[in-house]
Amino acid sequence: MHKRDKFLFYGGPSFGGPPGPPFALGLHGGPPHFGRRLRRMRRGDVRAAILVLLDEGPRNGYQVMQEIEQRSEGAWRPSPGSVYPALQLLADEGLIRTTESGEGGNVYELTDAGRGHVEERREQLGEPWRLAGAHMPEGARELGGLLAQVGIAASQVMHAGTEEQHAAAARLLAETRSSLYRILAGDEPEPKA
Questions:
Q1: In terms of Cα–Cα distance, which of 26, 16, 130, 7 is closest to 84?
Q2: How far is residue 25's CA from residue 33's CA, in Å, rounded to a whole number?
Q3: Is 125 part of any domain?
Q4: Residue 164: which residues within 8 A CB-CB, separation 6 or more?
Q5: Looking at the domain assignment, is residue 186 inside a domain?
Q6: Three-state DSSP class for 169?
């Protein structure tokens, strides 16, 4: 497993690299996780998830990561450092092929051998993203989903916003971070009237 490939529980997904937001948990000096880790996903889980998703239709690597995160309700987002090597290995094994999309990126799809491989092992492959959040309390699952949504919004501001919007978003995220730590410390701010 890639050393940056951390799967975080009770606190939402790990944004393990581009094109994720700049406030990645466990990176840039942030805490490695909120609370205890329930289950560390294995390299085989990434491989299984890729095969199951590509059986549904072609995707690029970023779409694979997004879909795993969405289906695990924010409990698991594998890093590019685990997804792209797994994609390359599956291509080397002849189970997937790469085609270039109109935007210049790579799109991956199952080969005939890959479809046969998935069909033969469908029960064994299962839905690996369900394992990630199997024992996560509902409140933590909701928090993880909200964190994922905030990450996507922050990423959009970072890539499409103006300098003023970048500054406003950075202030808001800094205030939010401080408020979250106050909640953990039991010093919740008074609600605004």
A1: 16
A2: 7
A3: yes
A4: none
A5: no
A6: helix
